[in-house]
Amino acid sequence: MMKRTLLMPSLSASLFYKEIDLLQPISFDKVFQFERFNSLCNGFVRLGRYSDLSNRTQVFELQKGSGRKWTIERDLDQLREFSKEPYDGYEVIRILGKNPFLWHDHWPVKDYAKVFDCLVLVEEISKEADKVVSKIREMGRRVGSKAVFSQNASNSEGPSSLPMPYIAVHMRIEKDWMIHCKKLEQRFNISQICSSKEEIIGRVGNIAGLKTPMVVYLAVADSLLEDNSILNGWKEGLLPFEKKKLGVMGIYNKYPYLFQSAIDYEVCLRANVFVGNSFSTFSSLIALERTLKMIKMGITTSCGKDVTWPSYAYNILGELNGPQRWMTDMSDSSLHAISYGTKDVSC
C-alpha cells in the first residue's frame, strides 16, 4: 500500500519471567534466507537492509493510534495519506505504537499465510533440525516401531514416506508459560488455557487411531523448565524423549534461545503427529503451516477422519478424552486467534 520496502526486522523472544539473558534480538537473516525470501515473496512484500539506506538520519516517525476509537478504516486511511506528498519525500518512515505494524484484524489469515511460503530457514538451522529428527527416528528404529499413522499421503514428503514416524508435543509447562496462561485465563474468564503435565500426558495417550510403539518428542524450553519428571507417566507404547535423553543437548547448547526455538519449531513441523496448546503462538503457527501442507494436498478438513499432517490441541478436550483435532480456519478474517489463541480450533 505504501509502495515501500520493509527494513529487515530483528527477531526477539517473548518471555514473561524476566529471563533477560534469553531476550537478545537476532537479525532476520541469521534465521531465514534473505534473498530467498524476496524471491519467493516478490510482489507481496520485500525486505531491505539498513546498510542500503543512503540517509539513515532522514526518518519520519508515524505515530499510530490506539484504543477502541482507532478503527481499521482510520488506520488504513492514515497509511494511504503517508504514501503521498510530503511524506513520500522521506527515505524512511518508522511506524510507532502499541501495535506498530497494523492491528491484528487487518490481516485475513489466508493473506498472512502467504509469508510462510517465503520463510526458508538458513542452512545451518535446517541441518541441525535434520540431525535432531534423524536422532528421533533412530530411537524409533531401536524400539522397533512399526506405527504408520496415515496411509493416504501421495506426496513424497508426506509422513507415510518417512522411515520412522514420531509424535511431537509442544509441552508448554515452563515457568514463564504458567505465569502467562493463568493471567490469560483470568482475562478471558475461561479454564481451557493452562494444562498440567498429567493432563497433557493423559490426552496424548488417548489420541484415537494412534498405533504404538511410537516415539514422542517433547519440545520444551529446557532452561525454563522446573519439572524433572516429564518423562514419567506416559501410556505404554508411547516412548517419550526430551533433548537430554535423546542426546542432542550439545546441538542446542551451541545456540542462543531463538535458534533453539527455530530448531524445535522445524522438528515439530516435520512430525507425523503434532500436539500443542491452542493459546501458544508457537503451537498456532505450526498448526497453520501443517494446515497449509494439508490444503496443498487437497485436504480441506481434519474433522472426523485420519489425515496426513494431523495436529491436536491438548488444552481442549476432544473425542475419547483425547486432545481436540486442530486445523487452522483459513477463512478467518482476523489474526486474533493465531496471535492470542482460541478454544475454537475448527473441529
SS strand fraction: 5-15%
Mean pLDDT, as a whole number? 83
Strand order of the largest sheet: 9-8-7-10-11-12
Question: CA-to-CA gap between the ends?
Answer: 35 Å
Poorly predicted runs of 5 or more residues: 147-162
Domains counted in the coordinates: how many? 2
Helix content: 25-40%
What is the approximate shape?
Answer: globular
The count of strands amounts to 12
Secondary-structure element series: EEEHEEHEHHEHHEEHHHEHEEH
Helix-and-strand structural type: alpha/beta
Q: Evaluate the radius of gyration.
A: 21 Å
What does the main sheet amount to?
Answer: 6 strands, mixed
**Number of DSSP helices?**
11
GO molecular function: glycosyltransferase activity
InterPro entries: AtOFT1-like, GDP-Fuc_O-FucTrfase
Family: Belongs to the glycosyltransferase GT106 family.
Organism: Vitis rotundifolia
How would you describe this protein?
InterPro entries: AtOFT1-like (IPR044982), GDP-Fuc_O-FucTrfase (IPR019378). This is O-fucosyltransferase family protein. By secondary structure, this protein is of the alpha/beta class. It folds into two domains: 96 residues, no CATH class; 219 residues, no CATH class. The protein has eleven helices and twelve strands. The strands form four sheets. A six-stranded mixed sheet has the order 9-8-7-10-11-12. Strands 1-4 form a two-stranded parallel ribbon. α2 links the parallel β5 and β6. α4 crosses α9. The longest helix has 20 residues. The two termini are 35 Å apart. About 5% of the residues have low confidence.
List strands and helices in order, with pairings.
Elements: E1 6-7, E2 10-11, E3 26-27, H1 34-40, E4 47-48, E5 59-63, H2 72-81, E6 92-96, H3 109-112, H4 123-142, E7 166-170, H5 175-188, H6 197-204, E8 214-219, E9 238-241, H7 243-246, H8 249-253, H9 257-270, E10 273-276, H10 281-296, E11 311-317, E12 323-325, H11 336-340
Parallel strand pairs: 1-4, 5-6, 7-8, 7-10, 8-9, 10-11
Antiparallel strand pairs: 2-3, 11-12
Protein name: O-fucosyltransferase family protein
Keywords: Carbohydrate metabolism, Fucose metabolism, Glycosyltransferase, Transferase
Family: Belongs to the glycosyltransferase GT106 family.
